[in-house]
Amino acid sequence: MSLSKYIVFEDKNLLIINKPSGLLSERSGDDTRPSLDQQVEKYLDNKLPAMAVNRLDKDTSGLIIFAKTTFAATEMSKVLADHTIAEKHYLALVKGVITESGIIEAPSRKSFERKKMVIAPLKSGAKLATTKYQVVENFQKYTLLNVQLLTGRTHQIRAHMSYMRH
Q1: Is 91 exposed, middle or buried (CB count within 10 Å of its CB: 0-12, 13-18, 19+)?
Q2: Where in the sequence numbering do the catalytic residues fall?
Q3: Structural domain of residue 82, as residue ranges?
Q4: What is the pTM of this model?
């Protein structure tokens, strides 16, 4: 993979990559599959660690911010966490027809039995998650949505769309 064609922005503090679908954002444990953080470390000649400020699922494409310094990583993490400067938007193609835009506010947590994120009561250890969605286009059996994460929970879009039966 030639990383240079995926670079959207680079300066002395940051490297922003348009991650293609099908590539892991980060390796974990003994996983030997190729990952974007490995590619970034090679690009940086292994002189700096690849500090990803955000992550995307393997099958999701989009921008990933890598910090080149600890200070940049800390500051960018703050910016993404407070949602005042940076907004996270996604295009999602979901099964079924959704006719109106809206906001989903439902707590989610990891289900160890089902091995995925599920909607659950707050008292069960779940954290409140808020997702705003806008219908872009309807198709016969699908809907294209512009989805904005107002919180940043793991697999939040999947959990909320599943909750809506989509």
Answers
A1: exposed
A2: 57
A3: 3-86
A4: 0.77
